[in-house]
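>> received
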Amino acid sequence: MQTAGDALRLEHKLLGASETLAGLGKLRISPDDWSQGIRLSLLTQELKEHLFGEVVDNHYMTNRDDYSTLRD
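>> returned
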């Protein structure tokens, strides 16, 4: 979560704690809600990768020619 939070702060140029709190205040987001949003996003991504990542990749690799005809 720390890495994801740091990436979001860097993306929005919220380099310090006071800047982060001020930015969240402008968006009317509490620090707890922000943390929960990051956590939910990370868990969602992890679940997608767990459920579909390897299966979809294997299916695609096995049936790659079927998908190339859809582009033509």
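>> The chain has a mean pLDDT of 85.
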